[in-house]
Specification:
By secondary structure, the chain is mainly α. The chain has helices spanning 44-55, 57-60, 64-70, 86-93, 101-122, 138-160, 173-176, 184-201, 214-227, 231-243, 293-297, 321-326, 333-337, 341-347, 394-406, 413-428, 439-454, 460-466, 470-473, 489-495; strands at 75-76, 267-271, 318-319, 338-340, 365-367, 389-393. Among the domains are: 1-74 and 94-182 and 485-503, Serine Threonine Protein Phosphatase 5, Tetratricopeptide repeat, CATH 1.25.40.890; 293-387, no CATH class.
């Protein structure tokens, strides 16, 4: 079902098994074996199944990652022409308006996640029938709910700035029509509250891959602190993750982004995707359980021998030549991050590669981290790639901690250098490229390293905004306007929300 507005208010399961001959005024839903809201959340399995539904919008929010690079100097929207995936073209060109399908989908998906989390929060103590349902692991389960709500709100606040804030219950229809935007500071306060609560009850290890852990909550909270310039708090929180010794930098940087590298020793928080869902929908954000964004990275009309590993795509998320030029000689990450298709074709003549040049903003480069690969999709191919997104990995934590220590009230540049150089030593395979700078020079080196390490993973635009560098790095960016995206027009029309300045 397409989500049409933030006003969607949550869960009512209606399963009609038999038809009734009675008039509607006499109708008792239980006579036809209907499960209503009052019948739900009566058992441990109900709570655990509902938790799965709170995770589900993570799969639909995949456009945040390409936007984070296309809106920056890292990538262009590319494609066949100026109207190919028009919403991304507008973001790339900085001509986006409140009427933009990609931005609307992100808003609606994030709030669907919030509403689902709030439904569970509303009935934590007792279900709608007033019954209390206790079971082992319930508090830890709600730690996952708190994390997910925090992540959805973090997505909203860094995309749109001041946003509607509600955390005690799902919205009613009437309430959705009278929403007000809350200041960013209040939204961040709620995010912090949720993550601190999650940390106290979540386990360090989950038996099921992809489930939220204590370390994921600590890492996200460290990032949230960093975005607010709370550097002392960020350093301390991120050190919890580092000092746990639960994560390591994998030696094979490229292998980390393959299917075989998912949920590996460097992964702290990954969005899980599947290619087995029988449900596909081009009509909205709820396209299924697959990662739609992978198709956007692919090479148009790509063909070759059976040995050639890549599959075709749309060429609508292309690394820029500016990004490629930022890597220095010996940096192993360049070849993993940007694929020069002509160079690849020349180096592999036995693959018999042919492809179509997507002429609009063509860079000749492709996002190899998430390039479509054969055998990783099924059904409706474009909508069903199984590739996970690595949202927070250990290298990110090290670089965030390095920045936090460098910018702390009492800077510790030695510690900052140590964390930064762990990442650089993996990138170059030696210590010859270690950074010895201090102060402002070290700070810039950390920021530069974030670009190189996390390129095409969705962080670049947000890093440039939070560090105040966006106007100097991004063509078309206007300070005082483009730090945030416009509130979707449909939300302004429905709820009377005020619009961000300049839109």
């Amino acid at each position: 079902m397409k989500i049409n507005s933030i006003k969607i208010v949550g869960l009512v399961l209606v399963i009609t098994m038999l038809a009734s001959c009675q008039k509607w005024v006499d109708y008792n839903p239980h006579e036809d074996f209907v499960i209503t809201e009052q019948d739900y959340l009566k058992s441990e399995s109900d709570y655990r199944n509902m938790l799965v539904s709170v995770y589900t919008p993570l799969q639909w929010i995949n456009q945040v990652v390409p936007v984070g690079d296309i809106a920056s100097d890292n990538a262009v929207s590319g494609g066949e022409n100026a109207s190919d995936v028009l919403s991304l073209q507008q973001i790339d060109d900085y001509t986006h308006t409140p009427v933009n399908s990609t931005l609307s989908e992100i808003w609606l998906t994030a709030y669907e996640g919030v509403n689902r989390a709030n439904y569970m929060t509303q009935y934590k103590a007792a279900n709608l029938a007033g019954e209390k349902v206790d079971f082992a692991g319930k508090e830890a389960l709600y730690g996952e709910v708190n994390f997910l709500r925090a992540y959805y709100y973090f997505t909203l606040v860094r995309m749109f700035g001041d946003v509607p804030l509600f955390a005690d219950k799902r919205l009613s229809l009437a309430e959705s029509k009278s929403l007000k935007r809350s200041p960013k500071a209040d939204v961040y306060k709620q995010i912090e509250t949720d993550l601190l609560a999650a940390i106290t009850v979540l386990p360090a290890v989950q038996t099921q891959k992809g489930r939220i852990t204590k370390y994921a909550a600590q890492a996200l909270l460290g990032k949230v602190y960093l975005y607010q310039n709370k550097f002392d708090a960020a350093a301390a929180m991120l050190d919890n993750v580092i000092n746990s010794n639960a994560f390591t930098l994998v030696s094979d940087f490229g292998g980390m982004f393959l299917a075989s590298g998912e949920n590996g020793p460097e992964s702290i928080f990954e969005i899980q995707y599947s290619n087995v869902s029988p449900y596909y929908n081009w009509g909205g954000a709820t396209r299924g359980q697959g990662n739609y964004a992978i198709q956007q990275c692919g090479i148009r009309g790509l063909n070759g021998s059976a040995q050639m590993p890549y599959a075709a795509g749309w060429s609508t998320n292309l690394p820029s030549q500016n990004l490629a030029a930022a890597y220095t000689a010996g940096d192993k990450r360049k070849a993993v991050t940007v694929l020069d298709i002509e160079a690849y074709k020349t180096a592999n003549p036995s693959f018999n590669i042919t492809y179509q040049v997507a002429p609009y903003k063509n860079t000749g480069l492709y996002n190899q981290k998430y390039l479509p690969r054969k055998g990783e999709t099924s059904g409706q191919v474009e909508l069903n790639y199984l590739n996970n997104f690595r949202i927070i990995r250990y290298a990110d934590v090290l670089l965030m901690a390095a920045e936090a220590y460098n910018r702390a009230t009492t800077p510790n540049d030695a510690k900052a250098q140590g964390y930064l150089n762990q990442v650089r030593q993996r990138a170059f395979g030696n210590t010859s490229n270690n950074i010895t700078a201090t102060g402002a020079t070290l700070k810039q080196a950390i920021w530069d390293e974030r670009r190189l390490e996390l390129a095409m993973e969705g962080d670049r635009f947000f890093d440039l905004v939070r560090t105040g560098l966006a106007a100097t790095k991004i063509t078309g960016f206007k300070a005082g306007k483009h730090e945030v995206f416009p509130i979707p027009q449909q939300e302004v029309d429905i709820s009377g929300l005020t619009q961000n300045a300049g839109y």
